[in-house]
Amino acid sequence: MAIRPLARRELSIDTAALARFLIGKIVVRELPEGIVSGRIVETEAYVVGDAAGHGYRGMTQRNRSLFLEPGHAYVYVAYGISNMLNVSSGNAGTGTGVLIRALEPLEGIGIMQQNRGTERLRDLTRGPGRLAAALRIDRSLDGLDLCRKGPLWLAHDDHEPGKIGKSIRIGITKDADRLLRFYLRGSPFVSGTKALNV
DNA sequence: AGTTCGATTCACT
DNA sequence: GTGAATCGAACTG
Predict the structure, then answer these.
(1) What CATH number did the domain enclosing A95 receive?
(2) A44 pLDDT exceeds 90?
């Protein structure tokens, strides 16, 4: 079953709809050692007028990629250690995006194990910082167009995702009660506590 | 120029 | 379940 790049016109202009749409799609990372890929099982939307969003206070040096056309990478460092992968959303000039929070590993599991320093399949890409480490994603990929093949891109195949759940987002303090987190129900590769994943 | 604060993770108990 | 580590970027003065 072939995988192909996501077309930009398939990406909803609505950030929450895009976050839901991305569940079941594939993140592809091309490394010198080979291809690493995983299926998206958890996302969060950071929408217009959202105090938790990095674009909320306007463009800065760090977040400028959020304001690109939909489907570009916004990569930033959280807590000084973990890289976070986001997909820019909304029309150009809109500082909104979708955080990719967890993947189900598909290809290149050996490379991921090396990048993560663990063998445990379930720990490779469960959590935004972990998946970025597994796919060796850092700020050098910030601003990349994810809708065309390259070092990092988004793909889809004929896979139909199962039921998608919705919850509050993880790890934020502002606008913390909005239901903007989406996840694949029953997936062992989703992060967060049991109560969030019903 | 100094301070504050995380869109987290890991190692414990 | 709880707590410490960790550092770059944004914000304040």
Answers:
(1) 3.10.300.10
(2) yes
